[in-house]
From TrEMBL:
CDD domains: HP_PGM_like. Pfam families: His_Phos_1. It comes from marine sediment metagenome. This is Phosphoglycerate mutase (2,3-diphosphoglycerate-dependent).
């Protein structure tokens, strides 16, 4: 069942980074070490999203505190002139020992998407852990503000999990939908329904 929220939310995934080009073969989520920045294409994506946001009369901006989302938020705030509220709960999923390793290693060890909800990599998080963190954030923010238009700047997995929670999707539905319509593209802006 869809969640009823007190505010209107917009979600924005950070723009393309140097680790999200065609050559990307490595996992780069959290920790942000070393920090990666947006590509020229990523900057253009966010400038385009910021122009769209100007018409949405955004009241507040909340952003992940790691470099690629800070850079994204900085571009958005140049257009909107709003203060940025950074929050650690909006960070990307932590894939533990797989950070910096080849994607194929992770997918070999975690081939079943449904199991990624409860099976976590060593020193990392499961999708359920990540969802708990992002849902905790939205519940607190939604109680704190009323009738506001709020922009959330984060990463693919947390935004996908938040979108699924708001729509009332269970783990099975989410894992089936991830690669179809609900996973946000880099630089994608959408209204949270």
């Amino acid at each position: 069942m869809k969640k009823k929220l007190n505010n209107q939310y917009f979600i924005l995934r950070h723009g393309q980074t140097t680790h999200q080009t065609k050559e990307k073969k490595f996992i780069y989520n959290w920790p942000d070490n070393p920090p990666v920045k947006l590509t020229r294409k990523g900057v253009k994506q966010i400038k385009a999203a910021a122009k769209k946001l100007k018409n949405e009369k955004i009241d507040l901006i909340y952003s992940s505190d790691i470099f690629r989302t800070r850079q994204t938020a900085g571009i958005v705030t140049q257009e909107l002139g709003l203060k940025i509220n950074y929050d650690k709960r909006l960070r990307d999923i932590n894939l533990g020992i797989y950070h910096g390793r080849l994607k194929e290693e992770f997918y070999r060890d975690f081939p079943d998407r449904k199991k990624r909800f409860y099976k976590k990599p060593l020193k990392g998080e499961s999708w359920s852990d990540c969802r708990k963190r992002i849902v905790s954030f939205i519940k607190i923010i939604d109680r704190k503000h009323k009738n506001k238009r709020i922009l959330i700047i984060s990463h693919g997995d947390p935004l996908w999990l938040l979108d699924g929670w708001v729509k009332g999707l269970n783990n099975k539905e989410l894992s089936r939908e991830k690669y179809k319509t609900t996973f946000p593209e880099v630089g994608e802006l959408r209204k949270l329904l």
